[in-house]
Amino acid sequence: MANNPSDPRTNRSSPHMRDFTRTPQTLLDETDTNIRHLSRLIDDVDKSKTTLMRERNDLIAKHRISQNMLKIVEQERDALAFKNEQLAGYVNRVKQGRNEAIQREQEALTQKRDLEEKVNDMGLVVGLLEQEMDRLSMQNLALATALREKEGGSPGKKAGTPKKGKGLGEGEAGGPGSPGGAKIKEGKGAAGAGEMAKAGETGEVGGGADDAGSAEHA
Asked: Which residue ranges are recorded for the region named Disordered (predicted)?
């Protein structure tokens, strides 16, 4: 049989054939080297595992912190929503109060205008009453003057004859010849003079006074 170069049993230079040529010490050294390498790999894996566990714990802690922060944010959000509702209610109350104040102000202005109109009407009424009072005063003054002239007597009458419609004779209390009667006439004359002065200041003379004066002149 011829030698086959590809046959491992006949090729002494192949790696498989070289394994049979190693010494036990060489195998032990290679084994130790492999063990040390594997030990380093195991240490690296342990370190990586420790690092990963630490990172995992950090992530868990951060997640818990994030959850707590989320709860705090939600609580603050709820508190802000509650405050927003309170502010909305307060704003609505303020708007309602402002509208009521505007309405009250409008009602007050309306009442003010009504009162001003009533005051003007009352002023007109008071003016008319004052004119009527002045007219009546002048009429009373004219009547009092005519009455005094009649009480003074005509030239054909006697001094001691009582006047018609008078229950007082001469010499009686309040009569024409008594001191009291003279005082009464003086008082009436003074009152008439004062009323005439007042009429002169106002410049108003009633129709009754004119009629009485024309009757006296007649």
From this structure: 1-23, 147-218
